[in-house]
Design a protein that fits this description.
The protein has 509 residues and is α+β, with helices and mostly antiparallel strands. The chain has 17 helices and 12 strands. Strands 1-2-5-7-6 form a 5-stranded antiparallel sheet, covered by helices on one side. A hairpin with a 5-residue loop joins strand 3 and strand 4. The chain is globular and about 75 Å long. Bound molecules: adenosine-5'-triphosphate. Adenosine-5'-triphosphate (ATP) binds next to strand 1 and strand 2. InterPro entries: Kinase-like_dom_sf, Prot_kinase_dom, Ser/Thr_kinase_AS. It comes from Vigna mungo.
Amino acid sequence: MASLLPPTPTATSTLKHSQMASPMKLTTPNNASFLQNSNHRLKSNSAKCHAVFGDVAKGLVENSVGMDQFQSIQSGIVQLERVTEGLSDMQKWGVLVFGGLTWIYLTARPGVLVGAIDAYLLAPLQLGLDNLVGRRNLKRSDFVVGEKLGEGSFGVVYSGVLVPKNGNGNNGSVDVVQKRGRGKTTQVEPKSKDKVILKKVKVEIQGAAEFGDYEEWFNYRLSRAAPETCADFLGSFVADKTNSQFTKGGKWLVWKFEGDRTLDDYMKDRNFPSNLESVMFGRVLQGVDSSKRNALIIKQIMRQIFTSLRKIHDNGIVHRDVKPANLVVTKRGQIKLIDFGAATDLRIGKNYVPNRTLFDPNYCPPELYVLPEETPSPPPEPIAAFLSPILWQLNSPDLFDTYSAGIVLLQMAIPSLRSSSALKNFNLELKNCGYDLKKWRDYTRSRPDFQILDGESGRGWDLATRLVSERGSLRRGRLSAATALRHPYFLLGGDQAAAVLSKLSLSRK
Ligand SMILES: Nc1ncnc2c1ncn2[C@@H]1O[C@H](COP(=O)(O)OP(=O)(O)OP(=O)(O)O)[C@@H](O)[C@H]1O
């Protein structure tokens, strides 16, 4: 067998900076004749082409790191060839196949290699940088706590304002914009960049502190791996004294305020989904008939949900609480995931406790658990990470979230499923039908309106039936986020085109 490696330059092929000052002098003793020919050809090229080559060569000279990398790749190839010199062709093939398989294993979902780079390089780097710019030095006095927005089992959520630091011209006061109210009185509002969301981790509830630590960990993890999928996490602080809102020693998590309403808030409105039209598409759908508009709005929301889920799943994270109340709609029509308190990272077993269910029963798949109940507690993190591609292949834990996303699709598309009592009833009926959506359609007496799902030759309905289902054999069958995005429902990207057009018209203003 011929050498598996390309012909390698010799050790004398090191490029000297002085030789590279001009693109014509990019030469080495060994391949001088080739480059001389190239010189002649280059000289006969147009002046424009010459200039481009000159710029590239100058870039190479100036970027000595690039050259170093080039040289180290060269010497790596030389060394690899030396190592395999004494091997037979068969053995060389063996090395190649082993290397290939190792690469496939390390890069297969949930990505052992990327995870290791994140844990041992990016996370410490983020910590160092955050400390440098003061991001991890938040304190109680940096915030004014506003109205309560919600309360979960482990935390209470408030709106709030970040008080700008002294020294930037604000004298520690809240940066405000003035607004004319209806009665012509002047309302004072914080500038949107200063608005924050604060979550107070309950101190008196057992397990709440652990939950807060997990939520913080997941937010930092996603801020490195997939920041566009979730709310911008600003950090945490521990209250240093007790007063009206604060309890000394209590932990607070802080996010940038991403938007006034969640998808749930929009869905409670009778005008849904047209109440989201201007946020998602501006005015580009004017002239399109209303049922088509509604279908496009819902498709765009689902596309964003699946895109975010695909990204977090690629990183080994399963959210486990996907529902409209945990999807914030931003001013620019982005749908962002919030509330990672129930999330689990199945690359390293973070927040995975066998047999623990944490989620909303209305959106939870029939299997109830993200992994089979008999799955043991995770081993130490490096071992768990090494085994994670096998665990993922055997159990497809991401299908937990895609079931919930399927319920969100049904709720958005079928108006009679939007109230929580109707959803509860739907879940009971679906259970009676063995989680077979087609059977449920024949069985239910509630006369749902399937117009949106049945449009476009029933593609939406087909997608829903492939999401809201029992898992098939080998715990598969239900669509993953990546395969859902390849479903014919998303192929005709009218929603994408409208979203792009709307962004373009916004940027022109
Ligand atoms: N970054 C954000 N931007 C805007 N609003 C937010 C943000 N984060 C949270 N909210 C608002 O706060 C509410 C509660 O947040 P979250 O779901 O994280 O809290 P929770 O107490 O864990 O609630 P639950 O467990 O009941 O879902 C959300 O429904 C949303 O209205």
